[in-house]
Write a structure and sequence with these properties.
By secondary structure, the chain is of the alpha+beta class. The protein has helices at 7-18, 21-37, and strands spanning 41-50, 55-58, 67-72, 78-82, 88-93, 98-106.
């Protein structure tokens, strides 16, 4: 195949390929396979001490986490008090000085 000489040539090539159902099928299966191979982003945030007021804990992920794991290391309960944002997760406890280990993850929709 000759190299395209200008934008019009490129447009014609793109139109020709996208008009081909077999090309679209191959493209979709390749994109699907690529998405399946993507690994989730995750980070262990270590031990956290949380009280009855909301605490912002920086998560350090490149995306807003959509999975939060809280493993208690003391008596009591710690929960996510507000939805995570691009910088922090927000936690609150039922009493002062509750401790836990925290892990955050971002998992693409097609991997959940």
């Amino acid at each position: 195949m000759a190299q395209p000489q200008n934008n019009q040539d490129v447009d014609q090539i793109v139109e020709r390929y996208f008009a081909n159902p077999r090309f679209l099928e191959l493209l979709n299966s390749t994109l699907f396979y690529t998405r399946l191979k993507r690994k989730p982003l995750s980070k262990a945030l270590g031990s956290q001490t949380i009280g009855t007021t909301q605490v912002a804990v920086p998560h350090g992920l490149a995306r807003t986490p959509n999975v939060l794991t809280v493993q208690m290391t003391s008596a009591g309960t710690i929960w996510q008090s507000t939805a995570a944002d691009s910088t922090n997760i927000y936690l609150k406890a039922d009493s002062a000085s509750r401790t836990c280990n925290v892990e955050v993850q971002y998992i693409a929709d097609n991997l959940r």
